[in-house]
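Weekly modeling sync, notes
Attendees: S.R. (lead), two postdocs, one rotation student

Agenda item 3: backlog of single-chain predictions. S.R. asked that every request posted to the team notebook include the full sequence so nobody has to chase files. The rotation student volunteered to paste the first one in as an example of the format we agreed on. Action items at the bottom.

Example entry:
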Amino acid sequence: MTSVQYSPSGSFVIVGTEEGKPIILEPRTGRKEKCRPGHSQSTIQVLVSPDSDFVASIGMDTQALIYRLSAVEEPQEVARFSITRK
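Predicted structure, as returned to the notebook:
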């Protein structure tokens, strides 16, 4: 585990992993979903939007990913950005 954040709604927890695929855990239902395709290296940070509809992650692979959450489907990647270092 590299980072953790509870959703503002309290319905799930997102966990960053060394594998690079953030995991969404729903304690009430026991549901566990990996965000795919994820990062090619370790996840540095995970974030949840204020409305709990989106999660974002930043990885050691210099990528920022945004996923849309749905109650009936696994998380869907909606955006991927490259981060450049100066």
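Discussion: group reviewed the output briefly. Residues 20 and 42 are 4 Å apart (CA to CA).
Action items: rotation student to repeat for the remaining queue; S.R. to check formatting next week.
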